[in-house]
Each structure stands twice: as structure tokens, then as C-alpha cells.
Amino acid sequence: MTAPLQPAFRALADPTRRDILHRLSAREMTIAEITEHCAMTRAAVKKHLTVLQDGDLIRMRRQGRETYSRLNAAALRPVVDWLGFFETFWDDRLDALHATLSQKEPDQ
Q: Residue limits of the HTH arsR-type domain (predicted)?
């Protein structure tokens, strides 16, 4: 794994952060709006958002007194590409298994 992906995988390792990403995929949200959906304090949500921002998975912007967070979907592409190798890995092995099983005589 290349070093630039490490912060993204660190961010994705936590279920709360994955849930936040799902919510942000629908729309931009303030910290207060995200906190309404989480069983934790605003400070805890802020820490999760910081980890997501460190992984470049979200972008934040200030508007007045509010900070809005939005999904940075483009940052997920390198993660998907990295995981895609394993999809090919399993596809190749399952194809080989299928070929082997197809050559065997059925038991009687």
C-alpha cells in the first residue's frame, strides 16, 4: 500500500466514520446536523471529521459561524483501485476452481 492511502484507510477503519461518509454522500452537512445522527458528543464527532479530513475523504468550508462538511468522492477512487486488485485475485481463483470442478467426473 502506498503511503498516501494510509490516512484514507485509517479513516475508513472506523464504522462511525463510514456512517458519516454515507450521510455526507447525500448532502453537505454541518457538525450539528451530523451530531444529531450520532450517539456521541459534538467534540467526538469533530474528532471523527478531523480524521476524515486528514484522509482527504471530506472537505470542510466555513460559512459564517458554521462549518460545512462534504464528501470528497474523488479521494475514494485510489482506495477502490487498490481494493480492486483483490477482486481480480478472487475472480482468478474462483475461475480456476470452476474450471477444475467442471473437469471432474460426477460421482455416482
A: 1-91
